């Protein structure tokens, strides 16, 4: 029997060395796939999960999981699950309002109505705090936070109760042009007036200045409302003349006798009488300015 050649010996060595590797590869089992649900059917199959927007109508066991679409605005499902069904949407009632509507994959989001905030201690909607005069809003009232107020400082003011606005900057009167009628405080703005202006400053009316003037000149209770004011020309015309020859002195230092005063009073009365001649007739026409002819 002839001896095997070197080539044949080398082939046998390679075959014997590779055989265990081949057999080992065949005997090695493939890695088991991960089961997201962690549950299996009776046959060993991984239970499927229903995605967001779908709910379970039949859980897996003898058969595989069965899912159904949730109804938009009625039911929803947020997570992947092999057990959860579609849940009913939340309803915003009472002092709550809907911030985000319900969808098939998200529940409705309810927050407190405007002007209210959610008190985390009581778990109820409570009215937002209103900042008093002299204080402004530092942080506005929001869903779960009440209003935060701060005192008006550094030339700022707040002249009314307010749940929304911060302290406002004070008005600066123009130096050398306007007169400061009232300095700015934390409770009210400054009041300025230009002496050369032909109209009253708007701030007079805003600040209540005009109201105060009207109050000073309005008749007191029990007084005759027809009594003319001291500054009215009617008041001057209806005064009893002073004794003959008596001198009347004004604040300006100008003097006049009673006869001159009577002449001026008569002239003033005539002008006022003339300016009141326009009368509207019952038929809607306007009577002429000139008085009727004397009989």
Automatic annotation (TrEMBL):
<feature type="compositionally biased region" description="Basic and acidic residues">
    <location>
        <begin position="214"/>
        <end position="223"/>
    </location>
</feature>
<dbReference type="Pfam" id="PF00020">
    <property type="entry name" value="TNFR_c6"/>
</dbReference>
<dbReference type="InterPro" id="IPR034046">
    <property type="entry name" value="TNFRSF16_N"/>
</dbReference>
<feature type="repeat" description="TNFR-Cys">
    <location>
        <begin position="151"/>
        <end position="192"/>
    </location>
</feature>
<feature type="domain" description="TNFR-Cys">
    <location>
        <begin position="34"/>
        <end position="67"/>
    </location>
</feature>
<keyword id="KW-1015">Disulfide bond</keyword>
<keyword id="KW-0732">Signal</keyword>
<feature type="domain" description="TNFR-Cys">
    <location>
        <begin position="151"/>
        <end position="192"/>
    </location>
</feature>
<feature type="disulfide bond">
    <location>
        <begin position="47"/>
        <end position="60"/>
    </location>
</feature>
<dbReference type="GO" id="GO:0005035">
    <property type="term" value="F:death receptor activity"/>
</dbReference>
<dbReference type="GO" id="GO:0009986">
    <property type="term" value="C:cell surface"/>
</dbReference>
<feature type="disulfide bond">
    <location>
        <begin position="152"/>
        <end position="167"/>
    </location>
</feature>
<feature type="repeat" description="TNFR-Cys">
    <location>
        <begin position="111"/>
        <end position="149"/>
    </location>
</feature>
<feature type="region of interest" description="Disordered">
    <location>
        <begin position="214"/>
        <end position="295"/>
    </location>
</feature>
<dbReference type="InterPro" id="IPR052302">
    <property type="entry name" value="Neurotrophin_rcpt-DD"/>
</dbReference>
<dbReference type="InterPro" id="IPR022325">
    <property type="entry name" value="TNFR_16"/>
</dbReference>
<feature type="domain" description="TNFR-Cys">
    <location>
        <begin position="111"/>
        <end position="149"/>
    </location>
</feature>
<feature type="compositionally biased region" description="Polar residues">
    <location>
        <begin position="252"/>
        <end position="277"/>
    </location>
</feature>
<feature type="signal peptide">
    <location>
        <begin position="1"/>
        <end position="24"/>
    </location>
</feature>
<feature type="domain" description="TNFR-Cys">
    <location>
        <begin position="69"/>
        <end position="110"/>
    </location>
</feature>
<dbReference type="GO" id="GO:0007266">
    <property type="term" value="P:Rho protein signal transduction"/>
</dbReference>
<dbReference type="GO" id="GO:0048406">
    <property type="term" value="F:nerve growth factor binding"/>
</dbReference>
<feature type="repeat" description="TNFR-Cys">
    <location>
        <begin position="34"/>
        <end position="67"/>
    </location>
</feature>
<feature type="repeat" description="TNFR-Cys">
    <location>
        <begin position="69"/>
        <end position="110"/>
    </location>
</feature>
<dbReference type="InterPro" id="IPR001368">
    <property type="entry name" value="TNFR/NGFR_Cys_rich_reg"/>
</dbReference>
<protein>
    <recommendedName>
        <fullName>TNFR-Cys domain-containing protein</fullName>
    </recommendedName>
</protein>
<feature type="disulfide bond">
    <location>
        <begin position="131"/>
        <end position="149"/>
    </location>
</feature>
<dbReference type="GO" id="GO:0015026">
    <property type="term" value="F:coreceptor activity"/>
</dbReference>
<feature type="disulfide bond">
    <location>
        <begin position="89"/>
        <end position="102"/>
    </location>
</feature>
<feature type="disulfide bond">
    <location>
        <begin position="128"/>
        <end position="141"/>
    </location>
</feature>
<dbReference type="GO" id="GO:0005886">
    <property type="term" value="C:plasma membrane"/>
</dbReference>
<feature type="disulfide bond">
    <location>
        <begin position="92"/>
        <end position="110"/>
    </location>
</feature>
